[in-house]
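Exercise 7.
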Amino acid sequence: MDPHPSAADERSPLAEPPSHPQRLVYLGTPSMAVAPLRALHAAGHDIALVVSRPDARRGRGATRTPSPVKAAALELGLQVTDQIDDALEVGADLGVVVAYGRIIGRAVLERLPMINLHFSLLPRWRGAAPVERAIMAGDERTGVGVMAVEEGLDTGGVFAEAEVEIGSDTTATELREELVTVGAELLVGTLAAGIGSPRPQEGDTTYAEKLTTAELEIDWTRSAIEIHRLIRVGGAWTTFRGKRFKIWRAELVTGPDHHGEVEPDGRATIDIVPEPGALDADRVGTGSGALRLLEVQPDGKARQAASAWRNGARPDADDRFGS
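Solution. The predicted structure, written as tokens, is:
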């Protein structure tokens, strides 16, 4: 037996496989944190309290809407609060954090050990937007991990991990759904086995800051591959005839160089790739290669097939995206 137990072992009886369901506090806010909450509840854990953000005001009226996690907790008959200090008053063994979205201070962590379900393979993509940043960087794999919560930003040791591949057309929404499913199973399994001692994070650290609206604007001088990744993240936008224009789905037009292309079925063509931002039928030129638009959203309108938009807008040779 290790004569120098870890801090997690000293503070929590959960280092060994539990003989009974744990008494937990669950901290989470968005929809991606709902499935892990439901999984813990279904596994028989005693969820003494759920901590989520305060209800948000929607629209111009006084109506307030609960977070997705709060709504799910109330449906399950669980007690909910927006005050994190309440987590110290329910006699919990452990706090479980999933996309809570707020800093947890030292005073709470010193009295209640916590684990976090994080959606990357740490230390790559610490921070708020690991799914989006992994896609934008062209990562071929990512994952989900159960880690110890420390004061630092996702610096704690890792108890368990599971890898997930990122397909060349996988969107952030699709990847997030897969990670949530895998993560919920990993979380329940880790608690059932006893969390044990975490291993230190190893490798180069990268940070996943939340994406800004400005970052989601398409720069048509960049390569088709880079723009395609941005579109897969969701919310990518440009302008068309002076109005904002979102592109929700597109596909790469493969080819040997900027001046010719090869269709997906292997047929060679002699078509010239349009200039960056220029349209040629269903294709848009970029700094290197072209994209075929599949689903778009003109300003003030619903998402629609790109073919339907073209039939209505009838873009001409002088039209350009980004202008």
